[in-house]
């Protein structure tokens, strides 16, 4: 891990891996230190913002220096189930590259429990870890210019749901009617880092 100043009242923790970033986020979230106003995980980073004069960043440095990031605290997390119709444009491609049937792709995807590692790309888009090994496949060689909202995709070690129309290069295996981002809601995004997510076949 390496700390870097990020303005006057924030610091960026560079992590060695996604696992370390998730562990650091879990450790700080479980401790809930006074004075930390924002906690933003990334693929290999963790941004922390403190209340000026609180000394919270120094406290977090001490906390993480002593933390066992190989066995982070689980803490309390929500579990969200998303109903999915598995009829994505790339479902057969994913099955072929995995060497399984399309039914097996659905079974594998719905049989795992995922964790929101971090959010980004678009408001409400969560990068979910826990994808079964056979489904860990590369992005499309040529991204689509328009991916419909609710599209469920996979790319590398992640799965996720496109919250709104956007370009995208993930392999699409299905779609959900669940709204992932509503600016009128509180909070606007359905998924937050640390949440557990299950996918359920809607037939």
From TrEMBL:
<dbReference type="Pfam" id="PF02682">
    <property type="entry name" value="CT_C_D"/>
</dbReference>
<keyword id="KW-0067">ATP-binding</keyword>
<keyword id="KW-0547">Nucleotide-binding</keyword>
<dbReference type="InterPro" id="IPR029000">
    <property type="entry name" value="Cyclophilin-like_dom_sf"/>
</dbReference>
<dbReference type="InterPro" id="IPR010016">
    <property type="entry name" value="PxpB"/>
</dbReference>
<keyword id="KW-0378">Hydrolase</keyword>
<feature type="domain" description="Carboxyltransferase">
    <location>
        <begin position="1"/>
        <end position="191"/>
    </location>
</feature>
<dbReference type="GO" id="GO:0004860">
    <property type="term" value="F:protein kinase inhibitor activity"/>
</dbReference>
<protein>
    <submittedName>
        <fullName>KipI family sensor histidine kinase inhibitor</fullName>
    </submittedName>
</protein>
<dbReference type="InterPro" id="IPR003833">
    <property type="entry name" value="CT_C_D"/>
</dbReference>
<keyword id="KW-0649">Protein kinase inhibitor</keyword>
């Amino acid at each position: 891990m390496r700390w870097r100043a990020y303005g006057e009242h924030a610091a960026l923790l560079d992590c060695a891996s996604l696992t370390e970033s998730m562990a650091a986020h879990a450790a700080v979230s479980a401790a809930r230190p006074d004075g930390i106003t924002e906690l933003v995980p990334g693929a290999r980073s963790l941004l922390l913002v403190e209340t000026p004069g609180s000394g919270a960043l120094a406290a977090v440095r001490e906390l993480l220096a002593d933390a066992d990031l190989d066995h982070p605290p689980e803490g309390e997390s929500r579990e969200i189930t998303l109903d999915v119709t598995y009829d994505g444009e790339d479902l057969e491609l994913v099955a072929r590259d995995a060497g399984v049937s399309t039914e097996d792709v659905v079974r594998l995807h719905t049989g795992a429990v995922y964790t929101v590692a971090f959010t980004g790309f678009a408001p409400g888009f969560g990068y979910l870890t826990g994808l079964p090994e056979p489904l860990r496949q590369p992005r499309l060689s040529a991204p689509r210019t328009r991916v419909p909202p609710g599209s469920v995709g996979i790319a590398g070690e992640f799965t996720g749901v496109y919250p709104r129309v956007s370009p995208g290069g993930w392999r699409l295996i299905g779609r959900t009617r669940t709204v992932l981002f509503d600016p009128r809601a509180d909070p606007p995004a359905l998924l937050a880092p640390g949440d557990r997510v299950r996918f359920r076949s809607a037939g």
